[in-house]
Write a structure and sequence with these properties.
With 121 residues, this protein is mainly beta. It is 0% helix and 44% strand. The strands form three sheets. The chain has a five-stranded antiparallel sheet, with no helix packed on it. Strand 2 (23-30) and strand 3 (35-38) form a beta hairpin. Bound molecules: zinc ion. Zinc ion binds next to loops.
Length: 121
Amino acid sequence: MKQFRIHTNDLVEVLAGKDKGKKGTVKKILRKNDRVLVEGVNMVIRHTKPNPHLQQPGGRIEKEMPLDISNVGLCCPHCLKTVRVGYRYVEEKGKDGNTKVVKARFCKKCNEIIGQGGKKK
Ligand SMILES: [Zn+2]
């Protein structure tokens, strides 16, 4: 399985495209086509026609479109900059009290460990 540097609930910055410079939280990772859905970024307005058949009212629907994963950069929650990420093995205490070694991402700028997205400790 491919390992992405970006995980769900990470804060990312858009590096290319019309929303360049915008920051948002990753809502979803579309592994199949290397795309990410970022909250409030790459919004498009869909004009839909009413469809009486499906009882859908027409109108404008705003929705996020996925971005290519290479067009977003991870923001470090410690130094709040878009940074390069490295991997490091750290010791982590599990629920059972045993220490185990896990692979963790770290910020190459401030050297702090970047958490695993939405997972709370
Ligand atoms: Zn940092």
